[in-house]
Amino acid sequence: MILVTGGAGFIGANFVLDWLNASDEPVVNLDKLTYAGNLRTLKAQQNDPRHIFVRADICDRAALDAIFATHKPRAVLHFAAESHVDRSIHGPAEFVQTNVVGTFTLLEATRSYWNALSDDDKAAFRFLHVSTDEVFGSLSATDAQFSETTPYAPNSPYSATKAGSDHLVRAYHHTYGLPTLTTNCSNNYGPYQFPEKLIPLMIANALGGKPLPVYGDGQNVRDWLYVGDHCSAIREVLARGTSGETYNVGGWNEKKNLDVVHTLCDLLDELRPKAAGSYRDQITYVTDRPGHDRRYAIDARKLERELGWKPAETFETGLKKTVRWYLDNQEWVDEVVSGDYRKWVETNYAQRA
Question: Where is the NAD(P)-binding domain (predicted)?
Fold first, then answer.
């Protein structure tokens, strides 16, 4: 049994789906079901006895203690986090509460549970913390890529709170001996991503005939990682990573934001052409957001060297899969955009409770 926090969010849900597709080991899926948590993503698993969903907050210590006592997981995979930079600028308090206080509360509950295990079970236990490359700050065009030893220099409330959670996880390993693992990933994309992030937002706006807003000059660079590749890397780190270590997970795909939007428009022109013109005609430039980091780039050689992991998707193959998924799953997108998925969650959860 493994415990996954945030397993109804974008990366967490993809991880749960991939895990249950490849393994018979059950998953306890803990999610608060904020705006970004969508149980419709996991609809196919609602009657699967291997998938045990618990609606709870990682800040709720009593709920966490009850989950540990009931399900006795061999590992915790901690995805739960507030993750949208723009939202953190407008409302940082929620990010501090979830990302810092929530991680602290989860670590404390985990430590209490772990201390009571037998010696063999303590040695086999793992706490895997999923984090971001944004904790390292911004790179210039000529700077070396982020490595596991790059100093932290967060520039937004989001990245600052994720940095704080990383430091807490490190401290619990060095102070209490808790067997932790941390992964710092680059920008994820793929199926089931909430349409506030760049790629799904551009797809939704393009199909809806709306402007495609590009921040600033569009030259900000990100390293893009297909979510399925990220999930496979996490499974490798959980299985064979060294306790106390951190591992960078990247796609080796540095792209300027404007180039990403151009590629998306070209794919949509191919797969869902407009009656006239190109989706590129909808691109508009908007005022840049405060503290917008110029470039992120991940050096993932440690993960390849020690665990033999490499991404399976190129940016081109991953993006085409992503666009096809959104075109084929417009109902999921419409429910998210309209908010109807929240009504379904409340109805479904009440029935299940």
Answer: 3-322
pLDDT tens for residues 95-124?
999 999 999 999 999 999 999 999 999 999
Report, as residue numbers or ranges, the catalytic residues.
133-134, 158
Asked whether 203 and 243 are in contact (CB, 8 A), the reply is no
pLDDT tens-place string over residues 284-294: 998 887 878 89
Q: How many domains does the chain have?
A: 1
What's the whole-number mean pLDDT along residues 42-61?
Answer: 94
167 occurs within a structural domain:
yes
Phi and psi, residue 72, nearest 5°: 50, 60
Contact 12, 23 (CB under 8 A): no
pTM comes to: 0.92
Query: Which residues constitute the domain of residue 36?
Result: 2-189+226-253+292-313+340-352
* Domain assignment of residue 143, yes or no: yes
| Cα torsion angle, 113, 115, 116, 119, sign | positive
Q: What is the CATH number of the domain that holds 70?
A: 3.40.50.720
DSSP string for 275-305: SSS-GGGGEEEEPPPTT--SB--B--HHHHH
Could you tell me whether strands 187-189 and 126-132 are parallel, antiparallel, or unpaired per DSSP bridges? unpaired
